[in-house]
């Protein structure tokens, strides 16, 4: 019985300590709005080109990332190599992702799912706000996407500066957005689960 | 018949009419010329403009650079705008210089050889005797268009067709169009070609 209590206490402690990442800094306040619209990539017919520098499992890869906003619910995203060949071409419609083209070497279910999820986090147009926290630097909105909690850190101008995706046990992904007004200049993406980093610099 | 439909048929016929297969005599003259000239080729340097066409984008994505090719097969593809980035294909390896950051790739040798062969062969015209492609020759305005359709399984994954354009009476390609399975393509235009000039060995140093 004593052993069972010890195990229970250990698990409780583990959950408590592992959940610190799951609570934002600041004071919980009432939601002022129900939806947070991302200030980036939402201009209809907007076309965006980025130099993409990727570190994937220790390999350095370069390319060009292309994003086009077709309408308020639809975007296209393509990654091409420096030589010009298309590596992938995805269509994002609301919460769904359609593969228009993927290079044969990348055409594996797990890889596609991972790429879809990662790029969706970067270009998703709007998030339902579940909770709001107020801190000195700005606010944190809590939302949900891909079945996981999303933390949207916005500055005092309500501009998205950092997005974090977490499960109850650990942080999954972090994305920094560096912008001048709503014109995005640089995006830094990092997976906390896999050795993957993507640096996007406006071309 | 509706006038719009007639106009469409006329335009379609006109497009096809522009692409005329070479006669046997023309083909022999053309391939002999290419063969003779490429035999004399010891080096080639050229500027290039690369245009990537994606159907959903309103403008093509452009890059510029220089290309160096040596008779031993060493090839340097050097982008200068908008970013400095170069790739050297030499001694069965790929050497990359990304704005000063150097790396070497030793990947799939078969794929590497095919990429190197495709680029070098496209520029010098040596692809014509290649078993990896079915080849057809056409006259289009003042150019000769060589249409290569990959037969090789590996190449087919990446390219549906390669088009090489030669100005009339010239032995060197002026543009290359690489068409992908998605229908998107990359067009490479070559300018300021210099044949058989001495290339500084440092160009191929990593």
Secondary-structure element order of chain A, as H and E? HEEEEEEEHEEEEEEEE
Domain tally of chain A: 1
* Total strands of chain A: 15
Low-confidence stretches of chain B: 9-15
Percent in strands of chain A? over 45%
Number of domains of chain B: 1
- CATH top level of chain B? Mainly Beta
Report mean pLDDT of chain A, rounded to a whole number: 90
Tally of individual helices of chain B: 4
Q: How much strand content do the residues of chain B show?
A: 35-45%
Strand arrangement within the widest β-sheet of chain A reads 1-9-10-11-12-13-14-15-3-4-5-6-7
What does this structure look like?
Chain A: This is DUF4292 domain-containing protein. Chain A: It comes from Brumimicrobium aurantiacum. Chain B: It holds the Pfam family LolA. Chain B: Keywords: Lipoprotein, Signal. Chain B: Residues 1-17 form the signal peptide. Chain B: This is Outer membrane lipoprotein carrier protein LolA. The complex is a heterodimer of chains A (203) and B (206). Helix content of chain A is 16%, strand content 53%. Chain A has 203 residues and is α+β, with helices and mostly antiparallel strands. Chain A has a single domain (21-202), classed as Clam (outer membrane lipoprotein receptor (LolB), chain A). Chain A has a 13-stranded antiparallel β-sheet with strand order 1-9-10-11-12-13-14-15-3-4-5-6-7, covered by helices on one side. In chain A, strands 2-8 form a two-stranded antiparallel ribbon. In chain A, strand 11 and strand 12 form a beta hairpin. Chain B is an alpha+beta fold and 206 residues long. Chain B has a single domain (21-54, 61-193), classed as Lipoprotein localisation LolA/LolB/LppX (outer membrane lipoprotein receptor (LolB), chain A, Clam), CATH 2.50.20. Helix content of chain B is 27%, strand content 42%. Chain B is built from 4 helices and 12 strands. Chain B has helices at residues 3-18, 24-40, 109-124, 153-158, and strands at 19-21, 43-53, 61-70, 75-81, 85-90, 93-98, 101-105, 133-140, 143-150, 161-167, 175-179, 185-195. Chain B has a 12-stranded antiparallel β-sheet. In chain B, strand 4 and strand 5 form a beta hairpin. The termini of chain B are far apart. The relative contact order of chain B is 0.17. At the A-B interface, strand 3, strand 4 and strand 5 of A face loops of B.
